[in-house]
Amino acid sequence: MLNVGDTPESFELPDQNGDTVSWDALRGAPVVVFAYPKASTPGCTTEACTFRDLGSEFDALGAKVLGISADTVKRQSNFAAKYSLPMALLADTERTVLEAWGIWAEKKNYGRTYMGIVRSTFLFDADGRLVQKWEKVRVKGHVDAVLEAVRDHVSG
């Protein structure tokens, strides 16, 4: 479980292009990681597209935005292409990061119990330390709240 003040273990995961993204290489700027249950589903699409639409504002603050799910590289690639998503979408098919961060958990839907990703967002400082996290995210208005938190963090 990842808590505020923690610095996650180093990891490397492929993005939607099959390129390796190294956690250590992201140091030096604030990083927002949004974890979503499944690419191209309605809520995940709305969330990712809102991060896309506000991307220039995150860029202006020097913040990097990444998405992560257990989807394959191919599914992430199709998702990115279909919706013109510019951010890296990490494919954690082995759930290494998702489990370590405590967001691969038991879920219930319509009386059915299963394991899946709890929609969550994490804001890390330039040193990779967790500054703020949002769990069990409701998509509407969420990205605006994250942007405001990044603004507050950057302005000090």
Describe this structure in words.
This protein is of the alpha/beta class and 156 residues long. It has one domain: 3-Layer(aba) Sandwich (Glutaredoxin). It is 31% helix and 28% strand. The protein has helices spanning 42-53, 55-60, 73-83, 96-100, 142-155; strands spanning 12-14, 20-22, 31-35, 64-69, 88-91, 104-109, 112-117, 120-124, 130-134. The strands form 3 sheets. It has a 5-stranded mixed β-sheet. 32% of the residues are buried. The model has no long low-confidence stretch (mean pLDDT 96).
CATH class: Alpha Beta
Q: Give the ordered list of helices and strands.
A: EEEHHEHEHEEEEH
Q: What is the CATH architecture annotation?
A: 3-Layer(aba) Sandwich
> Which ranges are low-confidence, i.e. pLDDT below 50, for 5 or more consecutive residues?
none
Rg value: 14 Å
Total beta strands: 9
Mean pLDDT: 96
- Shape estimate: globular
Count of alpha and pi helical runs: 5
How far apart the termini lie comes to 26 Å
CATH superfamily: Glutaredoxin
Coarse structural class: alpha/beta
**Oligomeric state of this protein:** single chain
Quickly describe the structure.
The protein has 156 residues and is α/β, with parallel strands linked by helices. It has helices at 42-53, 55-60, 73-83, 96-100, 142-155; strands spanning 12-14, 20-22, 31-35, 64-69, 88-91, 104-109, 112-117, 120-124, 130-134.
